[in-house]
Write a structure and sequence with these properties.
The chain has 3 helices and 13 strands; from the N terminus they run ααββββββαβββββββ.
Length: about 230
């Protein structure tokens, strides 16, 4: 063994595999340039969206702190019903209903334009009449009284349950009538005038006052529900 000079006389060592060399050559790169670019763009878009959402939230908070907006108020002050007769033969409703109402703007810094007001009379979900009221502007802490009258006849189709309710209400001489107001409205907030289409819903209990007989229950002033 001491005569050997350190040379290796075994079989030749095979060259490294091409796939192995390729792996070592590219193992330092985690993604290609296109993937990196897409990732950067996504991160940038997310940051921009988050910034916009935060700015909008701050703007809404500042607006609320400055203006403290409140929804408009609407009351039915008086309702006079002198006819409300449902024909048993052809489902025709004969009616005469006069209504006095008040719109109120409770805001100190916001004006309200009422560009369209449609008043709709309904009985147990069946419309029997509608009227368009005068339009107007409500200034800060201002209010406006309006009156309208529903008079005429209209066919209404009631189910057996609603007909039974009509019979009971006729006996008590107090009718449950729904008044709905559909609005086109603009708010005056500085230079801006955003538009909305809200509505009021009023559940009225109206006594019949005709034929010398008056219900023992008078009409109670009713606050209506506001819905954006």
């Amino acid at each position: 063994m001491s005569n050997l000079n350190g040379a290796y006389y075994g079989p030749s060592i095979p060259p490294p595999d091409k796939k192995t060399r390729s792996y070592h050559r590219h193992s330092g790169s985690s993604c290609n340039p296109l993937s990196c670019l897409c990732s950067c763009i996504c991160n940038l878009v997310c940051q921009i969206l988050i910034t916009i959402i935060v700015l909008i939230g701050i703007a809404v908070l500042v607006f609320w702190l400055i203006y403290r907006p409140s929804t408009p108020k609407f009351h039915v002050n008086e309702a006079t019903l002198t006819q409300f007769t449902l024909s048993p033969d052809n489902n025709t409703l004969y009616y005469n209903l006069a209504v006095n109402m008040t719109f109120r703007n409770p805001n100190k810094r916001i004006g309200i334009y009422l560009d369209r007001i449609e008043a709709v009379g309904e009985y147990h979900g069946e419309r029997f009449d509608s009227k368009y009221l005068e339009t107007f502007y409500l200034g800060h802490k201002d209010e406006k009284d309006l009156s309208t009258e529903f008079r005429g006849e209209r066919m209404v189709v009631l189910g057996n349950g609603d007909r039974s309710k009509y019979t009971r209400e006729s006996s008590d001489r107090v009718y449950e009538i729904d008044l709905k107001l559909k609005l086109k409205m603009r708010l005056k907030v500085g230079w801006a005038k955003p538009k909305f289409k809200p509505k009021f819903e009023c559940d009225l209990k109206v006594p019949l006052t005709t034929g010398g007989r008056v219900s023992t229950t008078g009409f109670q002033r009713t606050k209506c529900d506001f819905d954006w």
